[in-house]
Amino acid sequence: MAIYLTKESKVLVQGMTGAEGMKHTRRMLAAGTDVVGGVNPRKAGRTVDFDHRTVPVFGSVREGIEHTGADVTVVFVPPAFAEAAVVEAADAGIGLAVVITEGIPVHDSVALTAHARAKGTRVIGPNCPGLITPGQSNAGIIPPDITKPGRIGLVSKSGTLTYQLMYELRDVGFSTCVGIGGDPVVGTSHIDCLAAFEDDPDTELIVLIGEIGGDAEERAAAHIRAHVTKPVVAYIAGFTAPEGRTMGHAGAIVSGSSGTARAKKEALESAGVRVGSTPTETARHVLEALDALDARAGAAQDGAARDGARA
Amino acid sequence: MDLYEHQARELFKEHGIVVPRAEVTDSPERAREIARALGGRAVVKAQVKTGGRGKAGGVRLAADPAEAEEAARHILGMDIKGHPVGTVMLAEPCDIEREFYVSYVLDRASGGFLAIASAEGGMEIEEVAARRPEAVARIPVDPATGVHTATAVRIADAAGLPPQTVDTLVRLWKVLVREDALLVEVNPLVRTAEGRIVALDGKVTLDDNARFRQSRWGETRQEADDSLEARAGAKGLNYVKLDGEVGVIGNGAGLVMSTLDVVAGCGARPANFLDIGGGASARVMADGLSVVLSDPDVRSVLVNVFGGITACDAVADGIVRALDEVRLTKPLVVRLDGNNAARGRALLDARAHPLVEQATTMDGAARRAARLATAASTAGQAG
């Protein structure tokens, strides 16, 4: 199954004909993504040849959906046009908009996420690496060849930490990895992904990667305590970040007493989440938790066998 | 980007919010003249981008121009929470009858903006909120409609502000939207004895991402307070100076933050945050390395790259280029994984610089760089 993105997902790329759009469309196709079209009003009617596939360019998202049945769009358009691109996609009824664009003004992010929510479109990002369901589909810029399909679901604010954990746990593999982005306002939260992974039969364990700034991880901890039955392992970046300095991501800033890595770690631990102190230790926690799951499943099976013998 | 009080004051004025007459200077003599022009009495306020100026002695009421000069001399050059005072603003005092608090802030949880208002202004709002949460109104603003008179009336009612403040609430929202601000705050907003509503102090944070459509921000450029940060900024690098001894370079904000933590976990202190970003070229890597190496506090450098879009061979090529441009006198530990890692490692092996070594894991690389830095500092103390 996986969450949000599967082999059946039909993907449009807004901004496909730009340099980044071309490069990553090629990669997405190579990863097995069913890219059914690009969108560019000035190049409507043309086609673009990739290695083994010719992809048509549509004048609008609506036209793309009408011709192909697309249900996902990946947005590579520049920051100044990103809000309009997402509004257009939501108005056309797309189910999922993955916004890779970095540097979108916050007022635009507020407007585009609110509009998409009103139209029933899920936004992932902005300023995110996208999401990948290994072996099935890749919507965004996550490298597809560092892991394989498996039983872990991953949700992360950081692109490179996503890659690091995918690589560390490559022997186990992932159901879906979602990079939600490090901006202060994003369309999909840790909680949204936790809930989706909880409902996904292919996901047995969830990895949550957070960082300093805001209180999303604290809210996720409360959600885990109340609603998540699968084991969760977490990693938080930014223990050494000083107050008042932005660490790369627009949202990664400690202000006053809030947003510290320590507070996030404590909140998660008090919800029963194991928190690693480095990415490698986090991966080790995951392996141990999976062993414990397997041992319990094995014991349950043995028990069932015994009960069967008795009957 | 945070604005100084006097810059926030200018924005307020342009949007029709009443502010006291005021002027900024960096000279005590000029402060005397400004006070004279304001009618003799003046409030002399340090211009720093941090709160708690009053408590630190950065705000003084001067009874006459001579006192204003004396106050300015005292305040200029002060250090307030690590912020040196370069300028003071002299403002016309006003007869305060009541003080309020109003702000619009970004609320990440809802993905929108919140109006926060209280009839108990003039002090730190966090304290009021902690002591008497019911005294602080928090009202979400619908991004589709913004703040018009009806919303402003609701905010004023909820916070117990007088009806005269409604106009200011509407205008303050316009400042937020038109200037692409993440935060606008007035504390205190006052009602004077004559019944006027005046913004006595202001704080504005602008959204750096909106620079492309806010052309006049060129004039209010943020000055970096550290020369290394200025140099890095000029090269377009995402660099923050810290006070340790292990230089850190990596790709992606999350991975670099994580690398700092891992270095700290190994008993050393990171000297900086430097994110070369996604898809970094050899040039960017070379620039980054030269900035980090020119920090005299740095005793070893850790390069931690997980190539996603970034190609590790480009990173390695950047390191090799930097070795040709700057004479390396500090040990460099490099960990490359992901996209084109094997080619990158081979490039560094071929260069075979005696001070460059490679590590195969992030934790191992951090441990090694930390050990090299502490060894260097012990050796330094012994010598």
UniProtKB/TrEMBL annotation, chain B:
Q: Which organism is it from?
A: Streptomyces rubrogriseus
Please name the Pfam families in this protein's record. Answer: ATP-grasp_2 (PF08442), Ligase_CoA (PF00549)
What SUPFAM superfamilies does this protein map onto?
Answer: Glutathione synthetase ATP-binding domain-like (SSF56059), Succinyl-CoA synthetase domains (SSF52210)
Recorded catalytic reaction(s): these are: GTP + succinate + CoA = succinyl-CoA + GDP + phosphate; succinate + ATP + CoA = succinyl-CoA + ADP + phosphate
Keywords annotated in UniProt:
ATP-binding, Ligase, Magnesium, Metal-binding, Nucleotide-binding, Tricarboxylic acid cycle
Sequence positions that bind ATP: 45, 52-54, 94, 99
Q: In which pathway does it act?
A: Carbohydrate metabolism; tricarboxylic acid cycle; succinate from succinyl-CoA (ligase route): step 1/1
Q: Report the EC code(s) recorded for this entry.
A: 6.2.1.5
Record note on cofactor:
Binds 1 Mg(2+) ion per subunit.
Specify which residues bind substrate according to the UniProt entry for this protein.
Answer: 251, 308-310
Q: Which GO molecular function annotations are given, in alphabetical order?
A: ATP binding; magnesium ion binding; succinate-CoA ligase (ADP-forming) activity
Q: Which residues does the annotation say bind Mg(2+)?
A: 187, 201
Its lineage reads: Bacteria, Bacillati, Actinomycetota, Actinomycetes, Kitasatosporales
Q: Name one GO biological process term.
A: tricarboxylic acid cycle
The entry's family comment says:
Belongs to the succinate/malate CoA ligase beta subunit family.
Domain spans labelled ATP-grasp: 9-215
Out of the domains of life, which is the source? Answer: Bacteria
Q: Say which enzyme class the record assigns.
A: ligase
Q: How does it assemble?
A: Heterotetramer of two alpha and two beta subunits.
Name this polypeptide is given: Succinate--CoA ligase [ADP-forming] subunit beta
The reply to whether Isomerase figures as a keyword in the UniProt entry is no
Q: Which GO terms describe its cellular component?
A: cytosol; succinate-CoA ligase complex
Q: What cofactor does this protein call for? A: Mg(2+)
